[in-house]
Amino acid sequence: MPEAPQQWIAPLAPVPVNATVTVPGSKSETNRALVLAALSSGPSAITGGLEARDTALMRDALRTLGVTIEENGDVWVVTPPEQFTAGGTIDCGLAGTVMRFVPPLAALAGGEVGFDGDRQAYDRPMEPLLGALAALGATVEGDRMALPFMISGDPALRGGSVMLDASASSQFVSGLLLIGARLADGLDLRHQGPSIPSTGHIGMTVSMLRQRGVRVDDTQPNRWIVAPGEIKPRDVVIEPDVANAAPFLGAALLTGGRIAIPRWPSTTGQPAPQLRAVLEKFGGKVSFQGDSLVVRGRNELHGIDIWLNDASELTPVVAALAALALQSSHIHGVAHIRGHETDRLAALESNLDALGARVRQTHDGLIIHPHVLAGISWPTYADHRMVHAGALLGLVVDEITLDDVSCVGKTMPDFVERWQKMIDDSVAAEQVAGRLDASP
Ligand SMILES: O=C(O)C1=C[C@@H](OP(=O)(O)O)[C@@H](O)[C@H](O)C1
Ligand SMILES: C=C(OP(=O)(O)O)C(=O)O
């Protein structure tokens, strides 16, 4: 079950932010590492996995399929079963990685596995993935080819060639690639349709498969060939989550401050280069100090024109920054985020309009004309990234009130505490520098 709703008034920044912010592990890498450990030929240890709703749902899902996961502090030891267990029901919550990565595992179980999730998850696209699993030999039952549904698997699923349209989510491709090596004939997967978003995340899947000894040929565009064979166990340390770093880095831009994020992943399938490009386009100065990414803002944001297809989960943060820029901005290439946790284009248009910005949806994005913002209401639509956007606006706009901040627990349950700490650390830094009176 999602958490009970919790209202939150986003704090104003009394000084430019100036802090070092540690960011928890990547959701995408954590859930891939869990799934690959469950598919591999022996136990694997995962260190620094993200502790949040999406990864708890993934651990529960794998346990329902017979996987053993022992959690000792931040080290999780995952032991795969001989064969995935049927008979259970998986709760996907609102997690794309659970609803798209676990059905392929269920297709390898010896019987029926049920899938359900939050009511809001029923609207997220599933049909291309379920259609592909049916084409590969699994039986899929459900009224709408969306959640809820049932899969009857076969541990000896043959696999082979299959075609799908992955323009609604790269996760359809990733989910199938993850099991490709476990199919008797391997997998020859092709995409046909409008371009696939978030291709960096498919790159993350391919590179994590290769690190475990799986042969993947991705030399042709929109085609992936996975050879059948062993998925080797591997111990991993999870890198920080780039999309969860974004609101903190955005705070440096908005307040003319400085934020450092240690352990910045330099080679990653996460949208790290895209985030850096966004911050620079807005006028931020990005540099590295040791293993930290450091962003400095100038208190003035330029309007930007940006293709965010490969980093679409950054859209709410980018839109919030754009609403406070000096010129208009245009975000392109993100039509598919209408099927993310909520219809993010509609949510951003309606929320920012209500604060006074003039925002228009296009066929694949948003045009944002900034305006002096005022107002209090910031509905979050159960979407963690709408919390990030509201928090950013609240740094400089009085009394921004989020109707429910609990949904941020999808990927960062202690976001509010980390946000407040960023502000408190910044005030303390000003006091130490003698620029602010330290008396209460
Ligand atoms: O595979 C992954 O871990 C993800 C892929 C992307 O999904 P879409 O391709 O649906 O945008 C991204 O937005 C999501 O946050 C995580
Ligand atoms: C789109 C997102 O999540 P999911 O993995 O549920 O698709 C996201 O985190 O912004």
UniProtKB/TrEMBL annotation:
Entry EC number(s): 2.5.1.19
Binding positions (3-phosphoshikimate): K27, S28, R32, S169, S170, Q171, S198, E313, H340
Keyword terms, alphabetized: Amino-acid biosynthesis, Aromatic amino acid biosynthesis, Cytoplasm, Transferase
Subcellular location(s) per record: Cytoplasm
Annotated signal sequence range: none
UniProt xrefs under InterPro entries: Enolpyruvate_Tfrase_dom, Enolpyruvate_Tfrase_sf, EPSP_synthase, EPSP_synthase_CS, RNA3'P_cycl/enolpyr_Trfase_a/b
Top-level EC class: transferase
Residues bound to phosphoenolpyruvate: K27, G96, R124, Q171, R344, R385, K410
Pathway it works in: Metabolic intermediate biosynthesis; chorismate biosynthesis; chorismate from D-erythrose 4-phosphate and phosphoenolpyruvate: step 6/7
Domain Enolpyruvate transferase: 14-419
Pfam families: EPSP_synthase
Keyword Kinase among record annotations: no
Superkingdom of source: Bacteria
Record bears the keyword Cytoplasm: yes
Reactions that this protein is recorded to catalyse: 3-phosphoshikimate + phosphoenolpyruvate = 5-O-(1-carboxyvinyl)-3-phosphoshikimate + phosphate
Active site residues of this protein: E313
Quaternary assembly: Monomer.
NCBIfam families membership: aroA (TIGR01356)
UniProt function note: Catalyzes the transfer of the enolpyruvyl moiety of phosphoenolpyruvate (PEP) to the 5-hydroxyl of shikimate-3-phosphate (S3P) to produce enolpyruvyl shikimate-3-phosphate and inorganic phosphate.
Protein family according to the UniProt entry: Belongs to the EPSP synthase family.
Protein name per its UniProtKB record: 3-phosphoshikimate 1-carboxyvinyltransferase
